[in-house]
Amino acid sequence: MNPRSHSQPQGWHLHPQLAEDTHPVAHLELSELRLMDDANHPWLILVPRIEGAVEWIDLDDGQQDRLGREITAASRALRQGFRPDKLNVAALGNLVPQLHVHVIARFHDDIAWPKPVWGTATARPYSPEKLVERVELIRSALRT
């Protein structure tokens, strides 16, 4: 899936907590693809650019289909780039109400395995060099 250039819908804004906790990776057809600033895990966040969307059911059928394809593309990029033992995909939104989907590469020897990544370990921010390397790896995997 090739990242494309699309304009931001009027009225849509990235939730401030997502903006603070993540780094931009790609501007997909429906979603912003972002990297969680936690080097403990290869962890992507997809945020559909749909004003007011809180739940999956707030998307129309076409948007749900598109988001599903974007989740698949993000999952495949993580699988290709990192060869995880498992992929975790979730849309919880208990703390950040804006609809967003987590796609996390998990490994049997990661810091949180087999528990969820939330609250298990302190987030380890990326160094500038590692951030550039990780974003480029994911962008490259998206293009294949």
TrEMBL record:
<feature type="domain" description="HIT">
    <location>
        <begin position="44"/>
        <end position="113"/>
    </location>
</feature>
<dbReference type="GO" id="GO:0016787">
    <property type="term" value="F:hydrolase activity"/>
</dbReference>
<dbReference type="InterPro" id="IPR036265">
    <property type="entry name" value="HIT-like_sf"/>
</dbReference>
<dbReference type="InterPro" id="IPR026026">
    <property type="entry name" value="HIT_Hint"/>
</dbReference>
<keyword id="KW-0378">Hydrolase</keyword>
<protein>
    <submittedName>
        <fullName>Diadenosine tetraphosphate (Ap4A) hydrolase</fullName>
    </submittedName>
</protein>
<dbReference type="InterPro" id="IPR011146">
    <property type="entry name" value="HIT-like"/>
</dbReference>
<dbReference type="Pfam" id="PF01230">
    <property type="entry name" value="HIT"/>
</dbReference>
